[in-house]
Design goal:
about 220 residues, 7 helices
Length: about 220
């Protein structure tokens, strides 16, 4: 009998698990496997403590480098010089999103420096964006769970807290009013962990979730 076939036959005729000793041994293997998976998940969650300082460092570098790198932006390829695309935003061009373009509409018209200022401001606003997404980010395709208010937003229409997690990342999003002065309502906005909220709003929209560390107690809106 060939060796491979002999191993297969032995496997097929492996005695069933019937005795208490066998059940205990099988249970031990199962526990060890679950324990290992839980440990790996915990380590992935705790890696946030190490990754946040990296996010801060690259953010500072982006602020310092942006004024010097923007003049070398390639209008044809839509990229910064080789080695600096970690400063770009993967979901918007260097001119910014619609809101940013509108805010800088008048300044942009200033000859030579207008467009330059607008682009530098965009990279300052979204510091090391690609780095936080591609390098520090995590997959957003595994089983996803959440607890809290899924409709919470940063516009005052829906307040509260939302906890999210999957196999390799977690996220906390919160928007809570705390101080009112006249017709100005100040709110605490928190977005820490990884940006998984899009999985609640539009499931399976993104394959990755970027790292986030945002705590702002002075976000506000005007009361009617």
């Amino acid at each position: 009998m060939p060796e491979e076939h002999e191993r297969l036959v032995r496997f097929q005729h492996f005695p069933p698990i019937t005795t208490p000793e066998q059940r205990n041994l099988f249970g031990l293997f199962s526990i060890n496997r679950v324990s290992k998976e839980t440990t790996m998940k915990l380590l992935k969650y705790l890696s946030y403590i190490v990754l946040v300082p990296l996010d801060w460092i690259t953010g500072v570098l982006a602020i310092l480098l942006a004024p010097f790198v923007v003049p070398f932006y390639n209008e044809v390829s839509g990229k910064l010089p080789y080695g600096f695309n970690w400063m770009m935003t993967f979901d918007n061009p260097i001119d910014g999103d619609g809101g940013h373009v509108k805010r800088w509409e008048k300044i942009r018209k200033i000859p030579i420096v207008g467009k330059y200022m607008q682009r530098v401001a965009w990279l300052w606003r979204n510091k090391a964006y690609n780095f936080a997404y591609y390098v520090l980010g995590r997959e957003a395709t595994s089983e996803f769970k959440w607890k809290g208010n899924p409709t919470v937003e940063s516009n005052g229409k829906s307040n509260g807290w939302l906890l999210m997690w999957n196999e390799s990342a977690w996220g906390v999003f919160g928007y809570q009013p705390w101080l009112k002065i006249g017709k100005i309502q100040f709110c605490l906005r928190v977005y820490c962990g990884w940006k998984l909220k899009s999985e609640v709003d539009v499931p399976e929209r993104n394959d990755r979730a970027m790292l986030s560390f945002h705590i702002n107690p002075f976000r506000y809106y005007a009361l009617k």
